[in-house]
Amino acid sequence: MPAEAFRAALHAIGHRPFDAAAREELRRQVSEYVDEAHRAEWPPERMLVEVKQILRASGYRTSSIVSGRYKEVRDALVEQIVHLCIVEYFERDTRAI
């Protein structure tokens, strides 16, 4: 199931270098997760809530200070994953037209 693979990819980030291969694996797992959400006809809001829950459960919480230079490295990763989910979700909508 894509949610478990997504969780595993997030877990792996903390246990090996976040190199190009790890980044590509995470991107692939995010894409598969979004595919599943889209096929299940989840609205984007639900998909994002679920993604954020998976991120929090995997230890990826955003810092309480979110202005520019005070952001933590994990904040940037969370932002990238959320952005990727949004792009992936809506690209599927445009492909269907």
Description:
The chain is mainly α and 97 residues long. Helix content is 72%, strand content 0%. The protein is built from four helices and no strands. The chain has helices at residues 2-13, 20-39, 44-57, 73-96. Helix 1 runs antiparallel to helix 2 (20-39), helix 2 packs across helix 4 (73-96) and helix 3 packs antiparallel against helix 4. The protein is globular, with a radius of gyration of 14 Å.
Q: Which key phrases capture this entry?
A:
mainly alpha; 4 helices; 97 residues; globular
Short description:
The chain is an all-alpha fold and 97 residues long.
Itemize the secondary structure elements and their pairings.
Layout: H1 2-13, H2 20-39, H3 44-57, H4 73-96
Helix pairs in contact: 1-2, 2-4, 3-4
Question: Can you give the helix content as a percent range?
Answer: over 70%
What is the total tally of β strands?
0
Shape: globular
Distance between the termini: 27 Å
Q: Main sheet, how many strands, which sense, barrel?
A: none
Helix/strand order: HHHH
Q: Mean pLDDT, rounded to whole units?
A: 80
Percent of residues in beta strands:
under 5%
Number of helices, where a helix is a run of at least 4 consecutive DSSP H or I residues: 4
List low-pLDDT spans: none
Question: Based on the structure, what is the oligomeric state of the protein chains?
Answer: single chain
What Rg, in angstroms, do the CA atoms define?
Answer: 14 Å
Structural class: mainly alpha
